[in-house]
Amino acid sequence: MILPKTPSFRLDGRRALVTGASSGIGLGAAAALAEAGATVWCVARRAEAVEASRDAIRTAGGLAEARALDITDLAATTAFIAETGPFDVLVNSAGLARHSPALDTSPEDYDAAMNLNLRAAYFLTREVARGLIAAGRGGSLINVSSQMGHVAGPDRAVYAANKHALEGMTKAMAIEWGPHGIRVNTLCPTFIRTPLAEQTLANPERKAWILSKIKLGRVGEVEDLMGPVVFLASDASALMTGTHLIVDGGWTAE
After folding, report:
1. What percent of the chain has pLDDT above 70?
2. Which pLDDT score is estimated for 46?
3. DSSP-based three-state secondary structure for 114
4. What is the CATH number of the domain that holds 165?
5. Is the pLDDT of residue 198 over 90?
């Protein structure tokens, strides 16, 4: 009898691009991909911070490069990908949140969130796919969404809107690019202990609400997402596209 063999989770020889790689989920994703053998390009707006991420990965024995880049600058993003691509893996982790009651949402906050979380994500993903298609290569493109791309919560009308839209965008791109061997999926975390979540978690009432919804009874840590990122990037998920991997401690099980 010949036993089936588990597809590899290794990423040796592959090139990965991680946005928002200077902290939080993006930094965790970059570290995880490098640990799995990929050469990782770390991208974020602040040069000093993203270069620190690169240096930490190199110190740990990984392969990494860094570039200061604001992905809302579409021309600069297109030029960067044309210069440094193609990338076999994308983890689009750059994002922001400006939470408020829907009645109080300002156009400025709405535009800022939509511009980074949706518009920039759309064109970044497109350009990475364009590079892969031109090179005749497949790849795995991962958009960091949220459980709020499937449910919603108080003060999160704008955030839920752009994450729900990101889910739809990902499905449509997966349909179009599947024939090219390009997979497109989302990773959907619950509340993760990062600088972005600090303000919410510092509010005792909000933290109590969060813990009441997470069936495992704890807030997520960056490490909880590192394995899922490698899974989605690797051949272990070779038949997954146009779908989502929810890491929410049971929040959306209701």
Report:
1. 100
2. 96
3. helix
4. 3.40.50.720
5. no
Number of domains in the chain: 1
Answer yes or no: is 237 within a domain.
yes
Question: Residues 41, 80, 122, 159: which is the catalytic one?
Answer: 159
pTM for this predicted structure: 0.96
With respect to residue 212, please indicate whether it lies within any of the assigned structural domains: yes
Would you tell me how many other CB atoms lie within 10 Å of the CB of residue 47?
Answer: 13
Domain that holds residue 172: 15-248
Whether 120 and 162 have beta carbons less than 8 Å apart is answered as: no
Asked whether residue 44 is domain-assigned, the answer is yes
Residue 36 CB partners (closer than 8 Å, separation 6+): 9, 10, 11, 12, 230, 233, 234
Catalytic status, residue 110: no
Whole-number average pLDDT of the chain: 97
Residue 20 pLDDT greater than 90, yes or no: yes
Query: Which residue from 93, 85, 65 is spatially nearest to 166, judged by alpha carbons?
Result: 93
Round to whole Å and give the CA distance between 174 and 178.
Answer: 6
Which segments of the chain does DSSP mark as H helices, in order?
A: 24-35, 47-59, 74-84, 107-114, 121-135, 157-177, 198-201, 204-213, 223-233
Asked whether 60 and 26 are in contact (CB, 8 A), the reply is no
Beta bridge partners of 44: 68
- Mean pLDDT of all residues in 165-185: 98
* Inter-CA distances, 124 with 17, 94, 97, 118, Å: 10, 11, 19, 10
| 123 neighbors 115 (Cβ within 8 angstroms) | no
